[in-house]
Structures
1.
Amino acid sequence: MKFGVTMFPADYAIPVPELARAAEESGFDSLFLPEHTHIPASRRTPWPGGRELPLEYSHTLDPFVALAAAASVTKSLLLGTGICLVIQRDPIVLAKEVASLDHLSGGRVLFGIGGGWNVEEMANHGTRFPVRWKVLRERILAMKEIWTRDEAEFHGQFVDFDPIWSWPKPVQKPHPPVLIGGDGPRTLGRVVEYGDGWVPIMGRSAAPLKERIGELQRLAKAAGRAPVPVTIFGCPPDPGAIEEFAAMGVERCLFWLPPAPAEKALPVMKRAAEAAGLG
């Protein structure tokens, strides 16, 4: 099994380069960073994680800038977005950002994506909540055209452009893995259609995770695909839990780190590494 860490890169937390170096030195294979471009002050949309929205949601750095900083001080650490809010980004610009990070890092990007939960946040970017997954699908398909063709074009309902030139192309071929988050009724179908992996959050599954993973692999087989890798967000630092996830077919476990200064975040990383048997 593979192990990584994830943390909101808040402006008051441990600097991302220091975090990335520590993760690589501790034996983790990856660092995943989430994003929110902003948090609407109205707070009308409830936070799925509970009653009070944590401070880090409105204080997080841009993930691509932060991951570029992480890339500059590491050699093998994989650089994941967990997740990127594709519906809040222009697909041509985002394709350039992902490809640039993959180019600069020597092919270390894991492109985690999701539809988002904050209705007002996505509305401020021009996306209506009911169509967010349709918008996301077209943007991802369009980005794949940009990544894989010297002269790319795309004509859809939400994304429409004539032939363009855009470099750099990603180092990874055909492109960085697209890992799809969420666990709604149509999530697994989306993973099989245009994803390269599934990233559920522990505790937010609509059904027992083992059943959902089995369903995913049945859908993949029916579509003529190989088994789809699964990365679990929020694995507890417990060897027993890790063994259970491994038995379910989970490929990678990600441990949450608190968005805090080094003296608080790094001891949590150490406990996670010990639970995973790293070092």
2.
Amino acid sequence: MVAGARVIEVPRTAGVPSAPVIIGLHGLGGSAENFAQVWSGFTPAAEIDVIEGFEVAGDGHAWFSWPPGTSDEELVTAIDAAERKLWPVIAELAHGRRAIIVGYSQGAMLTFALAARHPEAIAGAVAIAGRLPPALWPQRAGAPIDAIHGTADRVIDIEAGRAVIEAFRAVGGPAEMHEFSGVGHTLTGPMRDVLYARVAARL
């Protein structure tokens, strides 16, 4: 346990002590173990820590409650509370190093929020199939961020992801959108290749 959260360190060769630590955030109903598998083909030496969501959701975990019919105002409150609880965990894992945040779905929503709020402490972020309500968009240049999203996503529409990237660009932050035609709410092999490339570039 780290700052009250369950964390799994992905077994691998540790990177340079001063290099950024990679932080993984799973999606709704996921687990730290499952999201750790995302890194099975990542070859650069690095410390990778996967944090488990704070709430039980079915057989897995979630970062916050998001029932059908949740308003954007309610979603803002939920994301804000989860981010404030999550950041001390990341700070303790980083031990003064910068972090690279990678999140999927609900984890991507938090990734966007973290990149907006902690640009000085985050070396880069990758949000996979995520969105962020406008009330949480960055007010100043955020951390460098990449969004990976399928054009056929029926859970979180790609237009919502595009809007967040434009919001990061509008305040001067480096932000790139990587779109995958016909792909739904998932992480495919080609998407993973982009993820690996973007994370390796930030190390």
